[in-house]
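Exercise 7. Given the components listed, write out the predicted structure of the assembled complex. Treat all entries as one system.
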Amino acid sequence: MNPARIAAILLRQLYLYRGSPARVVPLFAWVTVDMVLWGFMTRFLGSLAHTAYRFVPALLGAVLFWDFMTRVMQGVTTGFFEDVWSRNFLNIFSTPITVLEYIAGLLLSSLVTSLVGLGAMIAVAGVAFGLSFAAYGMTALPFVLVLLLSGMAMGVTAIAIVLRFGPAAEWFIWPIPALLSPFACVYYPLSTLPAHLQGLARLLPPTYVFEGLRAMVAGHGFQASLLVTALLLAFAYILLAYAIFARVFRHALQSGLITRYSAETVS
Amino acid sequence: MPAPQSLASQTILANAAALRVENLRKQYGRLEAVKGVSFQVFPGEIVGLLGVNGAGKTTTISMLLGVLEPTAGSIEVGSVNLLRHRSQALAGSNFAAVYAPLPGNLTVYQNLRVFALLYGVPDFPARLQAVLDAFDLHRFRDAKCGVLSSGEQTRVGLAKALLSRPRVLLLDEPTASIDPASARAIRTTIRHFAAQAQTGVLWTSHNMYEVEEVCTRVLFLSRGEIVLEGDPRKLPREHGKSTLEDLFIHVTRQATDGEQRLEARSS
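Answer.
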């Protein structure tokens, strides 16, 4: 891997963000709105339920972590769409950049932009609703890593879909996080799902993350087995996502799709 | 302008060809767009690739750029096989085409900086200065490419193409949207560059005056095959035609008539 070529993709994204408020504002605007909405919702639920259940770290924290994962996925797809929107495939893919370097550049760009969103969410949730990361402890960091890897795997799979089916397939990929969220047990324990859906949920790394975080909030401590399973799954998915993109890219080179991408077809 | 190379000198230089294409084929289903094309471009030489629309010029160039995988055949940039060592081979080539402008949402400087990283250009400030000088782009350095005229955008694309001092330069109708005075300046710049950097240039154009002025050798491509090759200043007389344009029309008609006769026989 050539670090300069990876840096080129990151630099391109930074140039685009530097000169465009329309790109910068969404990095934190929607996640901030989400924090405010779910912050008040959490307060309301806390006022209804006279239990010791800690709604803020359990529910608002879950929304924050889920939004972070979604931002990671969108960071990857947005970077790819910059090449789609500016019809840059021919220029970019006729350079020495490899598929792995291109993907690595998108992942790095996504990490930077997602951290901006995460910072905004932590600030709003902490200042306005008292969400403290002390509730999770440092052991939550590996779980955040799992969500980062999961978001990256989703993002790479999403851009493979768009590369294969054309720019109009954009509308397939934006709802992916919403489609997965019921099965990832973001807002409720795994046991809430019917037995036949629990099997599906167990295939998703975020399920283990949210089960683990809830356990920590409830005072059951850090559960290493959940983390290990989540990490193994997340690594497997990111390798699978890369393999899918590489296969689709090869198909695009063979069929001529790269050179005629705006036509959305090679026939 | 470098003198056209003799057959003997070409033989001596055969091992040092900047670009070597052997039996290149591209098939889309039943349609064979390129049918076993072979040619070489030597260092410092400018070779014209001529043919009517749909003759297979852009398909050939796409394969040379690594954005379209050939059905068969081999491409070597220097001595590096493009199909086996894609990244290494593409590091030695660059291109400009009127249908592949650089992203309009980045400035001239930003685009050139990003592509310098992608191509691994050493001493970027000096190369930047050189290409901005060569194409009279200093006053547009910080302008977004999207606001430039089509001719200015073409010059930016050419600046990107020369930035990496490639061994092989592929130019697909580089002066198509340029006024005559600027086109002449561009031809002079590229000729000097090819001679100085010992870059092999493959140049497609529909402007036969331009081809005669710039190219040391031409390849006539018709229906995916090279049907004629030679010195553009001698070829017309050798075939009883007064100009290269007359020869172009003659060759095109011959190929079309031949195809029609074949179709009539087979039906």
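Discussion: Chain A is about 75% helix and 0% strand. The CA atoms of residues 75 and 113 of chain A lie 7 Å apart.
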